[in-house]
Please model this.
Amino acid sequence: MISSNLPERLIVESPKRIGVLGGTFDPIHLGHLAAAGEVAGVLSLDRVFVVPTAGHPLKDGSEEASAEDRLAMASLAVSGDPLLQVSRVDVDRGIPTHTIDTLTDLGAETPGAEWFFITGADALARLDEWQEASRLRDLATFVGVTRPGYEWSGPIEGVTLVEVPGFDLSSTDVRRRVRTGQPFRYLVPGSVADYIEEHHLYRGGSDG
Ligand code: NAP
Model:
């Protein structure tokens, strides 16, 4: 039997290292999940919040599924994985989504954490145009995930790149496949494929 008469100890916990996987997730696919897992492993993250946007600040709202559908699919995709957790902060704040607000809201919910904002390297190529770009770099480390063989157009200050094995998928391709009746089921988690079919998502539209 283990004795419980241990001296009281001062337990000093190191700050949690938390990833924020930002994106439209229209829909979330296996490449996004592979990216979250790879970055969490490489950077020793304790948790990754998956945060669907309300809308895109540099685009005109061209996503096809509603925010609630995109959130529902993200929740199905991470179900049962203790590393990943979906956050509604961006959807609840509403359009437009600015990452400065995402990080401020999540920081208020979990003070004292060290933050890593993870998204596609393509999106981070324009980081200098984001609202409060210099303050953003104080709030988080920015991590751009890339497909194998990706040609990075040049170093962007404060951005770390992580290559994700097998990440050769895109939401655009998933939507196009659904719309044209091509196979898509094994590009997304099975529960997400079921949701797309049951809710008749991506049947219309005009991607590429
Ligand atoms: P996007 O133009 O939809 O995506 C750009 C590229 O990055 C696409 O190839 C996309 O592939 C990929 N991508 C997006 N999210 C990804 C993820 N989490 N993991 C891996 N690849 C990903 O860009 P976006 O999704 O709208 O923006 C990404 C994030 O940056 C969002 O959180 C957004 O709020 C933030 N952002 C902020 C500002 C600002 O604060 N002013 C400006 C721009 C973007 P898929 O289509 O396959 O996902």
Remarks:
- The chain has one domain: 14-198.
- Residues 188 and 202 are 14 Å apart (CA to CA).
- The first strand starts at residue 17 and ends at 23.
